[in-house]
Write the structure tokens for this entry.
Amino acid sequence: MANPYDIAVIPGDGTGPEVMNEGLKVLDAIAKTSGISFNFVHYDLGGDRYLKTGETLPGTVLEELKRVDAILLGAIGHPDVKPGILEQGILLTLRFTLDQYINLRPVILYPGVETPLKDKGPDEINFVVVRENTEGLYAGTGGFLRKGTPNETAVQTSVNTRMGVERCVRFAFDYARRPDRRKNVTLCGKTNVLTYAFDLWERAFNEVAEDYPDVSTGYAHVDAVCMWMVKNPEWFDVIVTDNMFGDIITDLGAMIQGGMGIAAGGNLNPEGVSMFEPIGGSAPKYTGKGVINPLAMISAAAMMLDHLGEREAATRVEDAVKRVVVKDIKSLDAGKMGLSTSQVGDRVASLATG
Ligand code: IPM
Ligand code: MN
């Protein structure tokens, strides 16, 4: 990864292209006012291409994506395509093939943003979820027996390798040492029921913890984590968990940080190609209306800058997002912002470079 950066751009479906435009607008503005430059290469992956050609992710595209410095993804999901095809064929295939074994999802409430949690503010809602991103129930292991008969059986198995779990846990401990974190890691599991999978997780967690004597640790079952995220979110700094639990608790996380309009995430392969995306979907009903909030996409672009090692530029974008949230925007929800999608992008771009 070196400047100039080769960035693959996948705008995707629905409102994906609209929010992507604003993400790229901000990155272009950063490039004009810094020594950083980007070669953006666009890929038309998504529902429209699938409906036209039957292809989700052609092998030639996948080969090209293996060689870029990072990937920006808008959104995947098309109302005319059966659920699962694009998610599996594009998003999950990219995560798995590029071995993006961490899904990093900050849950940070910015000042001025409304949270549905009573009596909680930015001091209380500031943690990150480190979600394992290549194993667990997402591994696709299982099958049907006697499908379509009255005795049909479906089995779907959670895959937890010691290697996969350990590298994820280690990432969480390293992350907890970042200057913007508080050196605490909570394992989110279900050791009382999933006595094989989370036994392995717990042992890996405790062994890795020994290498980080300066980092404090905790454990909570996933159901309790849901409860504490609402009641006492200030207890969490870094939460590490498996793929399925991480998927679920980060939607809850997005809601307490102000909604899908602001929630961003990174699919990370620290040794390879990482991909950054807003965590909300393609929101097809808002397509083309210019009312979707691009801040999650812009925040994903900031996470990309941070990942590329461009910490200063990342901070400029993050700070600009925070200022727009406080000063310019009425609500983070689509259609209620008081500004259009592109006006929000304009504001962030000008504040990030002004
Ligand atoms: C997410 C999404 C995906 C997931 C879907 C679209 C496959 O919900 O990124 O959280 O479950 O990982
Ligand atoms: Mn999800």
User: Anything to note?
Assistant: DSSP finds eleven helices and twelve strands in the chain. The chain has a mean pLDDT of 97.
